[in-house]
Automatic annotation (TrEMBL):
<dbReference type="Pfam" id="PF01728">
    <property type="entry name" value="FtsJ"/>
</dbReference>
<feature type="binding site">
    <location>
        <position position="84"/>
    </location>
    <ligand>
        <name>S-adenosyl-L-methionine</name>
    </ligand>
</feature>
<dbReference type="GO" id="GO:0008650">
    <property type="term" value="F:rRNA (uridine-2'-O-)-methyltransferase activity"/>
</dbReference>
<dbReference type="InterPro" id="IPR015507">
    <property type="entry name" value="rRNA-MeTfrase_E"/>
</dbReference>
<keyword id="KW-0489">Methyltransferase</keyword>
<keyword id="KW-0808">Transferase</keyword>
<dbReference type="InterPro" id="IPR050082">
    <property type="entry name" value="RNA_methyltr_RlmE"/>
</dbReference>
<protein>
    <recommendedName>
        <fullName>Ribosomal RNA large subunit methyltransferase E</fullName>
        <ecNumber>2.1.1.166</ecNumber>
    </recommendedName>
</protein>
<dbReference type="InterPro" id="IPR029063">
    <property type="entry name" value="SAM-dependent_MTases_sf"/>
</dbReference>
<feature type="domain" description="Ribosomal RNA methyltransferase FtsJ">
    <location>
        <begin position="33"/>
        <end position="214"/>
    </location>
</feature>
<dbReference type="GO" id="GO:0005737">
    <property type="term" value="C:cytoplasm"/>
</dbReference>
<dbReference type="InterPro" id="IPR002877">
    <property type="entry name" value="RNA_MeTrfase_FtsJ_dom"/>
</dbReference>
<comment type="similarity">
    <text>Belongs to the class I-like SAM-binding methyltransferase superfamily. RNA methyltransferase RlmE family.</text>
</comment>
<feature type="binding site">
    <location>
        <position position="65"/>
    </location>
    <ligand>
        <name>S-adenosyl-L-methionine</name>
    </ligand>
</feature>
<feature type="binding site">
    <location>
        <position position="67"/>
    </location>
    <ligand>
        <name>S-adenosyl-L-methionine</name>
    </ligand>
</feature>
<comment type="function">
    <text>Specifically methylates the uridine in position 2552 of 23S rRNA at the 2'-O position of the ribose in the fully assembled 50S ribosomal subunit.</text>
</comment>
<feature type="active site" description="Proton acceptor">
    <location>
        <position position="171"/>
    </location>
</feature>
Length: 215
């Protein structure tokens, strides 16, 4: 049904109403974060301490920048490199590069980016973050598979660029292939935990994979 007065659908109007009344949306505005997603990483950090003060952090799928904001606030003596296929407004202390994380040349490109920023030839990082999620198709199984493709891309970067004992955090949409994927990750990290932050909506299928201590 169309809401003729406002020119939007009833479902869109409900989304706007829920967004405006959301506690974390209000907190983000109050605390100066670019989105409510900041509180998901803050909760992960509080529970697992994945980022340290002097870390080199790679934030994949960074736009609009709330995870980069959290990361640079923690890694005050470190470096944050953010990458997204979408543009991201400049953020103090964060090096942003617009690039497609799923492109075939991304692995080489990210090594070049890290060398430019850190001056280290190996282009390695201490932490990789990913809040990437596929565009919704409306079909849960399809979105789940697309989400795993993004996670596999993160794992590829982690294999190549994450230091020994480094940490990886990435979002995954739950589904049938989740357990097999988690089992695969466990062979490369000393500890792997599934975590749902308080800021994740109850109805959301998103879960965060927190992989600590790269072997």
């Amino acid at each position: 049904m169309k809401n003729k007065k406002r020119g939007i659908t009833a479902s869109s109007r409900r989304w706007v109403e829920r967004h405006d009344s959301d506690l974390y949306v209000r907190l983000a505005k109050q605390d100066g974060y670019r989105s409510r997603a900041a509180y998901k990483l803050l909760d992960i950090q509080k529970s697992f301490s994945v980022i340290n003060v002097d870390n080199v952090v790679l934030d994949l799928g960074s736009s609009p920048g709330s995870w980069s904001q959290v990361a640079i606030n923690i890694a005050k003596r470190g470096v944050v490199v953010a990458v997204d296929i979408l543009p991201m407004k400049k953020l103090s202390g964060v090096y942003f590069y617009q690039n497609d994380c799923l492109s075939k040349a991304f692995g080489i490109k990210v090594q070049e980016l890290l060398f430019d920023v850190t001056g280290q030839k190996n282009g390695c990082v201490d932490v990789i973050l990913s809040d990437m999620s596929p565009n919704s198709s409306g079909f849960g199984d399809i979105d789940h598979v697309r989400s795993l493709l993004l996670c596999e891309a993160c794992m590829k970067v982690a294999h190549d660029r994450l230091r020994k004992n480094g940490n990886l955090v990435m979002k995954c949409l739950q589904g049938a292939e989740q357990d097999n994927f988690i089992s695969h990750i466990r062979t490369f990290f000393s500890k792997v935990t599934l975590f749902k932050p308080k800021a994740s909506r109850k109805e959301s299928r998103e879960i965060y994979i927190v992989a600590q201590g790269k072997l």
